Each structure stands twice: as structure tokens, then as C-alpha cells.
From TrEMBL:
One of its GO terms (biological process) is methylation. Transmembrane segments: none annotated. This is Methyltransferase. Residues 17-90 form the O-methyltransferase dimerisation domain. GO terms for molecular function: methyltransferase activity.
Length: 344
């Protein structure tokens, strides 16, 4: 039905909120980059105090703080401001912090390709590659600060999954669990902490796994886990009976994802297990679905050339590369699913 002058105000307001959504994200970005959540900490401070601590103009800092208050990141107490529970997640030192996650996903580098989403939809091209003349991960290799923030963001985005996956699957049946593309080891450390029988192998690039030894040591599992560096497009080490792949396959199109899967299959024994942890798209869009999974799908399109997939698409992708899907288990509240497959 077309809009008319009689369209309810609430409907128009909802659309305006979507249109202004990118501006709201930049309020989050500015607060993180200026360090506002860290300055506020557990207390409350005036706009002048925040501005002095952040090296900013008091007048414009007040305007930023009021916008953050309207977004429920802060609350205003007279002439002073304090972080809400939502805003506290943006502190760099908060339990369950999303500071790095917010920093990376509001960075101009990630957003530049989004400005050409229509081109990406029209052509199917990865607009990041066209904008920067190189792939996203190659670009990260030339930006150490952004690469560090990206690795931290991936770790922060893994914490919720790490809290539920170890109890959603019997990892105790395996001798060796290898986390391919395992980053800083957050997920594998959680699995090995919960299941004391298996040993672990964390496999990633030197850059991706640079923080892994510290994470594994802090979890008390370093003696049971080896960190191996390499490129999963070239090969995957053998010696495990279960391979864990979290947030790897959605980064790539079917051809490149298939290459990773074939290397995983070559590394596994007959009837070894593949454990894929990814969002799984419904067959059609439910009324109550979070839009995040679909925004992530488009982010894969413009920045990486990958995609989110349905259960049927995962079954086809895995079947074409040596695996048979045996089960798909949602992992609430993470938004991810565990796709279990057997090597055949």
C-alpha cells in the first residue's frame, strides 16, 4: 500500500529512525573514539569534565552527550551524565565489553563499501575490493592498528557463543579438537575449560592468532592446546578428529568456502566431525526476526564477498565438499547455530 498524507505518525517515525540509523551509529563511534564511556566509568561527570578528559570542546561535547542520552547510552542527572547498562558495554574495561566491536563496525573502512551497496546488489561484486583495490583482509594486513581492533572485535563477538557452545555439544567424545580460523582462542579455550578430556589445536594466521597464547594461558588450558600458524586456503593440519569452524565460511563465496572445507576434509579421518558455528538464515523472513542477520549478509556481500546461508544452502555446500550434515542446533541467545556434519 502506498504512503499517503494519512499514514500514521508512528509509521513515518519508524522509517525516519531507519534513515537516521547511520547517524546514530556515528554517535556510538564518536563516544568510543573520544573515550566517553571510559571517562564516565561507574560515576557521573559534567559535560565540561568529560570534555576536558577527552580533549574536546565543552559546548559540542554537551551536544554529543545529549544525543547519546536520547539513544539510551547515557542518562542525564541534572548537569551531569552517567552511563546506562547499554552505554557501559562500550567501556574498554567492562565485562563483556563491545568497545572494539563498536570501534570496528563503525569504522570508515568498513562503511565505505556500504555506500555502494546498490552497485554490489546490481553486479554481485565485492565493493570493498573496488573501492580499495585490494581485499578486506589484505587491507587489514597493511593497517596493524585496525587489524588489532578487528581481532579484538571478533573476540568480543565470540564471548556469547563461547558461553553456550561447550554445553550444547559433547566435545568430550573427541581426542583432539582443532579450531580452524580460531583467532585469539576465545572459543576453543571455553570448550577445553568445560571438557577436560580433549586436547586442542588452534590454527590461524600469525596475525589472527597473535593473542591466542595469552588467552589460552589465562583460561588454564595452554598445556592442552597447541597454536599452529598457517593459511587454511593452502592446507589444514591433520591429527584431529573434530574440526571447529566459527565465522569462517560466511566470509567467502561457495568456491573459496569449498576450498577451506576440502582442506578440512583432507585433515580429518573417515567419520570425523565438522562443527560449523554460523548464523543460519530462515527459509523465509519471520515477522519477529532480528534484522542483524540480514544486515550481516549484506556486509558479507560488500566487504568480503561472502554470504550468510540457509540450512539447505549449508547442506549443499558441505555435501559438495565431503561432508554430510547430521544436525543443526540453535545456540540462543547468541544468534548462531551449530551445524554438525560427518566426514564421508
Amino acid at each position: 500500500m502506498a504512503a499517503s498524507p494519512d499514514t500514521p505518525a508512528a509509521t513515518r517515525h519508524a522509517l525516519v529512525n531507519m534513515i537516521f540509523g547511520s547517524m546514530a551509529a556515528q554517535v556510538v563511534a564518536a563516544c568510543v573514539r573520544l573515550g566517553v564511556p571510559d571517562v564516565l566509568g561507574d560515576g557521573e561527570r559534567s559535560a565540561d569534565e568529560v570534555a576536558a578528559a577527552c580533549g574536546a570542546s565543552p559546548r559540542t561535547t554537551l551536544r554529543l552527550l545529549r544525543a547519546a542520552t536520547a539513544l539510551k547510552l547515557l542518562e542525564e542527572r541534572g548537569d551531569r551524565f552517567a552511563a546506562t547498562g547499554l552505554g557501559a558495554l562500550l567501556r574498554s574495561d567492562a565485562p563483556g565489553s563491545m568497545h572494539a566491536f563498536a570501534r570496528v563496525f563503525t569504522d570508515p573502512v568498513l562503511l565505505r563499501a556500504w555506500h555502494r551497496l546498490d552497485d554490489g546488489v546490481r553486479t554481485g561484486a565485492t565493493t570493498f575490493d573496488e573501492e580499495f583495490g585490494t581485499s578486506f583482509f589484505d587491507h587489514l594486513g597493511s593497517r596493524p592498528e585496525l587489524a588489532t581492533a578487528f581481532n579484538a572485535a571478533m573476540s568480543q563477538g565470540t564471548h556469547v557463543v563461547a558461553g553456550v557452545l561447550p554445553d550444547a555439544h559433547d566435545f568430550g567424545r573427541y581426542d583432539v579438537v582443532m579450531d580452524v580460523g580460531g583467532g585469539d582462542g576465545t572459543l576453543l579455550a571455553a570448550v577445553l575449560s568445560r571438557h577436560t578430556g580433549p586436547r586442542g589445536v588452534l590454527f590461524d594466521t600469525a596475525t589472527g592468532s597473535s593473542e591466542a597464547e595469552g588467552v589460552l594461558a589465562a583460561a588454564g588450558v595452554a598445556s592442552r592446546c597447541e597454536v599452529v600458524t598457517g593459511d587454511f586456503f593452502a592446507s589444514v593440519p591433520d591429527g584431529s578428529d573434530a574440526v571447529l569452524l566459527k565465522s569462517v565460511l560466511h566470509d567467502w563465496d561457495d568456491d573459496r568456502a569449498g576450498k577451506v572445507l576440502r582442506h578440512c576434509r583432507a585433515a580429518l579421518p573417515e567419520h570425523g566431525r565438522l562443527l560449523v558455528v554460523e548464523p543460519v538464515l530462515p527459509d523465509s523472513v519471520p515477522d519477529d526476526v532480528s534484522p542483524v542477520i540480514y544486515l550481516s549478509d549484506l556486509n558479507m556481500l560488500v566487504n568480503l564477498g561472502g554470504q550468510e546461508r540457509t540450512r539447505a544452502e549449508y547442506a549443499d555446500l558441505l555435501a559438495g565438499n565431503g561432508f554430510t550434515v547430521t544436525d543443526v542446533t540453535p545456540l540462543p541467545p547468541s544468534g548462531f547455530c551449530l551445524v554438525e556434519a560427518e566426514a564421508g
